[in-house]
From TrEMBL:
Record-given protein name: Lipoprotein
Domain of life, source organism: Bacteria
Positions of region (Disordered): 89-109
Amino acid sequence: MKNTSDNFPQKTACWPIGLLLISILVITGCKCNQGDQTRQQVDSLAGLSADSASQEIRNRSHQFTFDSLTTGWLSATMGGRKVDTAAFTSGHAPGFDPDSTAAGSQDAATSQFPEAVNFQPDQQYYKDYASVLRFSPDSSYILDFGSYGSIPVKGKSGRTTLEGGEPDTKIMVGIPGQHKEWQVMFAGPGTAILDATWKNDHQFMVLYASQQEGSRIDTTLIMGDMHTQTLHWFQLSK
């Protein structure tokens, strides 16, 4: 009869191998779980980032409020027409493509300033185009809503007036102290700037009318914020 104790050392030698295999499986499982958790965390962070960006855009549109100063200026600019908070609704910038991806956005009427360009006019610029220039109350910013395409003509009395040379319209806003300016709007023939003003030290407003198909005239308000470099278009309700 064969002694069974002879097999004992062989069985005992198998234990370390078995433990090693189990350890490998456990470690592999942990790494897989860690990988899944990492992916979930990345996805969660991406989702939070997207939500934050959407909220930021919504907040930008909410910063433009129709207070009494706004409605009072609009009413005076439009010849005394009564204007309340429901008179203007969110619109869109000139050239807006309704088939673009922005059309599905909640804030298609809100956009950022484009890239800044150099702004170093001479003193004659401020004199010749004074009628279409608006400085912010603290003089930090300047809004130009009519120098483009205009020709300064000095009359016999020495007073300078502006005559139209180009049918296109361009609105610019700048920081003279930093020699930078940004384009607010560019529009072709049929667009007339009614007036422009600063609501406070960093927010400006521009009201313009544009000829549409047939005899229809659209009246649009642009509100801009120099702190966030954001623009928002509002359309006059018919």
